[in-house]
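ok trying again, last paste got cut off:
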Amino acid sequence: TYSVEISDTNGCMSVDSLIIYPVPKNSAWNDGPYCEGDLVNLYSSGDYSLHYEWTLPGGFVTIIKNPKVSPGVGGDYILKVTDDNGCTSKDTTTVCVNQISARCHSEHVMFLDADGKATVVPEALDAGSWATPCAGLASTNVDIPLVTCDDLGIFPVTLTVEDSLGCQSSCQTQLHVVDTIPPNIQCVEFL
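nice, full thing came through this time. structure:
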């Protein structure tokens, strides 16, 4: 409590007191980054006697201390806390929601080697798959990694891309397996 005494040139005085309350302590955070569609967990460090107000991207407001948001949206989540004296403080946590997209060529032609086999290379099917910077692309895989003479013809192959969080996306390519090497026939003499 502070007291203020004011006097004018005529000797008139006035005394008033002022109470200064501390700003409530507050910290906002999340446990991301997240995959698209994941539940976002928001956390605050203030005690339960405070009044909480989270403003989410898009303007939605909630008064829950530690809300869960589904589906999570990337962006700034602003936490405002108010104590019983009307003092407020704000903190912001940025949520990163990784988006990932597999992009395939519509078709791919593969030629069998002299042994009647060919390895399906995921990068050959990929037509520009991407992920947002939260996690970036970590791996590409195909559901049929090897084709043989038994696979001649056209059939779908699935390409799956995954980021470092484990978020996945898939697409399909029509794989055309061709054998252009004529068979090698050897005659064996009988004695």
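cool. Helices lie at 122-125. The radius of gyration is 33 Å.
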